[in-house]
Every structure is written in structure tokens, then in C-alpha cells.
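quick one: nicotinamide-adenine-dinucleotide bound model?
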Amino acid sequence: MPDARPLSGRIAIVTGSNSGIGLGVARELARAGADIVLNSFTDRDEDHALARQIAQDCDVAARYIAADMSDPVACRRLVEAAGACDILVNNAGIQHVCPVEEFPVEKWNAILAINLSSAFHTTAAALPMMRKTGWGRIVNIASAHGLTASPYKSAYVAAKHGVVGLTKTVALETAGQSITCNAICPGYVLTPLVEAQIPDQMKTHGMDRDTVVREVMLARQPSKQFATVEQIGGTAVYLCSEAAAQVTGTTISVDGGWTAL
Ligand code: NAD
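yep, here:
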């Protein structure tokens, strides 16, 4: 009989996990038995309530630690405050869309800091903990934009390609130490962030919801279906499993065929 809770006794930190993919990944890791540290930059009652809900639903320990992933010191403090880290999921991310010559410098800096540099800082803080216990899993949430580009997303594409490069380097530095580092590259995932873009796109293109989703948002996703946060979470659970012990330094696309085109 397969172990229903293979991650029991493991502690997982998921950055940017009070909504969307991060929250979905945290839930799937908890369903697999991992204790959870949720994170975002806010410190509201509802953030802490999310952790309580996961603890109750999945019978694991879960807490929420506020830390701004644009701040290198806060990134490292998050890992220290967690006290231990067997599984690190670098998920926090933001987006801004603008032609390169008009791209606001502060947006470029913020995207690089939150989407790329935070993963460097949390990884640097977590690796000594993983080496001490002799086991670790680092899962970076990159994007199809870590493997291909789209116009007007210079900072995001640069950051996500950087995440893939960081992933490969960390994998080489940890090879043979029972620590793996991989990146998941989602295509479009229906998160609240993406859902909120649909009405604007309907207005801009004069299309109904189904048409705008199929023809505009999923134009490059051959399956014409969004990926789900549960599917991203399930992929993370796989990367944390024994079956994936020799999977390291690579990317797994969950993109409905986008990068096969
Ligand atoms: P989201 O906005 O729902 O989630 C982003 C998370 O990051 C939120 O929890 C937010 O609070 C957090 N965050 C933002 N700035 C932060 C900061 N300074 N410090 C700490 N946390 C911060 O969006 P999402 O769609 O769930 O995106 C999550 C990740 O998945 C991102 O890295 C994104 O690039 C990636 N991704 C998303 C899609 C998609 O279609 N939704 C596709 C590919 C990759």
C-alpha cells in the first residue's frame, strides 16, 4: 500500500502562499503530511486563518510568517524564523506588462527582487538546514516564461529564465547530498490574479468570457484549458517524493503543451 502521507515529519516553507498557486501547493504538501509555513508580505488575521484552516483540514502543524520577499534580509529571516526547512517552495511573484523602453525601473527592480533574488536568499538560508538533516527539496515556481518569451514581459521573462538558471546551479552544488532542486514551469493557471484579468480582456477585445479565454489568454496553450493549482501542487508533491530522488536540475512544464509548439 502506498504511504498516503509520505511527507509526514517534513517542514515546508512556501513563499507567497496566501493565495493562488502558493496556497494550492501548500495545501497539497499538507495533504501529503508536511507541516507548513505560509508566507506573504501582509500580516492580517485572514493570513493566519489560512494556516489554521490547513492545520485543521490536513492534521498538520501550520503557521503563517509575514516577510517581504523583496527584502533580502526578510527572505533570510523567514527561513530562520521557521526554525527548520526540509522543503522550500519559492513561489512569490509579481508581473508587470510594458514595452522595454518604457518599462518603469522600479517595476523591473521589484520583479527581479521578488521573482528571482528572493529564491537566491531563501535557498542560501535553507541549504545549511537541509545539509544538517541530510535531506532537502527545493521547488522553484518558474513559468513557461522561464523557457520562452512574450513581448512586453521583459522583467518577468528575465527573472523566470534566471530562476531556471539558479535551479540548475543549486542542483549541481547539492548533487549526491539527498537534496534536489527543480523548477515547475506552469502555463496559464486560473488563480484569482488571472481571473481578475478576464473582465478587462473581454472589454478590450469585445469578446465573451469563453472566447477571450480560448482565443486570447490560452492562445499559446494548445490544450485550451487552464492548469489548476492542485495540478501544480501535485507536481510539487511528486518532486518531494522518493520517486523523484534522482530528478534534479530540471524543469517540469505544466502548460497544456505551450512549450511543445
Ligand atoms: P498570486 O498573485 O495569486 O500569488 C502571488 C503570491 O506572491 C501571493 O501570495 C502574494 O501575496 C505573494 N507576494 C507578492 N509580492 C510579495 C512579496 N513582496 N513578499 C512576499 N510575497 C509576495 O499569483 P499566482 O498566479 O498564484 O502566482 C504565483 C507564482 O506562480 C508566481 O511566481 C508566478 O510568476 C507563477 N506563475 C503563475 C502563473 C499563472 O498563470 N497564474 C503561470 C506561471 C507562473
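The first helix runs from residue 20 to 31.
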